[in-house]
Structure formats: structure tokens, C-alpha cells
């Protein structure tokens, strides 16, 4: 039950973040819009899984989460909340993916987070002439076994 309470509190903190409005913008304000994750929803909660011996030939890790961009925004922010009950490492990488098939890495760090800790990354603006189609967030690494089992909730917002 404690894990469920921590997850609920983390999601509530994420949604209560200033200037983040799920799926819409308040009239006359510079509010941001939460992007939809591929597969649905505006936030995704996961636990980091380590690559197993059968993952490479038969499956895929759960490291990557893509958020779809359906309107052009001038900047993007990534919202992270630890949902684990212990301090731990979170290897985090994030990319803006463009309509021409290229991408730009905007985050590359290992965050050592306390239970319930939140961190925003950004704002990140696309280069001139580039149209963002997705924001990819990768949490986890096959090179960091200490991250296995660490829980988190992630979301991405776009600002006009």
C-alpha cells in the first residue's frame, strides 16, 4: 500500500506542477500542454528492467517512452518523478525527434533521486527549420544494474 501511496502522490505532484495543463492551454496564459505518450495517456509510470539473456534476441527493454507532438511548440520540458521507496540511480537520456528523421539529444545524465523526488528538464527548443514529431525519453541502461527495479513517472509538455 505504501508503494501505491507514493505513486499516487508522485502523479499528483506531477499534475500540480505550475504551467502544466493536461491536454489544453488556459486562455491568455503561457501554459504548456502535456503531450500524449505513444500507447495513450499523458504520463507513463514504469520500473526499470535490466536486459536479460533473452531480451536481445527475443524482446525489447522498457527503457524508451515516446511522446507524440501533434502541434508545433517553441519549447519542450520533461517532467520526472521518482516513485521508488529508496534512493537510486536513474540513467536518463532524452531526444527531440524531427520530421526529417534526425534527432537531437537534450538530456544525458544519471540522476540519483530520493523517493518522490521530482525534476524538470528543459526548456528545450528545436533548431530553426526543424519540426519536432516526437520526444523520446529513455530511462534505464543495460550498463547500470543498480538502476534495476527503480520506479518513475515521466511526462513531457510543449509550450507555445
**Main sheet makeup:** 6 strands, mixed
Strand content: 35-45%
Q: Whole-Å distance between the termini?
A: 39 Å
User: Structural class, judged by helices and strands?
Assistant: mainly beta
**On the 0-100 scale, what is the average pLDDT?**
81
What sequence of helices (H) and strands (E) makes up the elements? HEEEEHEEEEEEE
Helix content: 10-25%
Are there runs of 5+ residues with pLDDT below 50, and where?
Answer: 1-29
Shape: globular
Number of helices: 2
Question: What report would you give on this structure?
Answer:
There is one protein chain. The chain is mainly beta. The protein contains two helices and eleven strands. Strands 1, 2, 4, 6, 9 and 11 form a six-stranded mixed sheet that branches. A hairpin with a 4-residue loop joins strand 7 and strand 8. 30% of the residues are buried. The N terminus is likely disordered.
Q: Short description, anyone?
A:
The protein has 160 residues and is mostly beta strands.
Looking at this protein, list some descriptive labels.
6-stranded mixed beta sheet
Topology, element by element:
Elements: H1 2-15, E1 20-21, E2 32-34, E3 36-37, E4 44-47, H2 55-58, E5 64-68, E6 75-82, E7 88-98, E8 103-113, E9 118-124, E10 132-139, E11 151-159
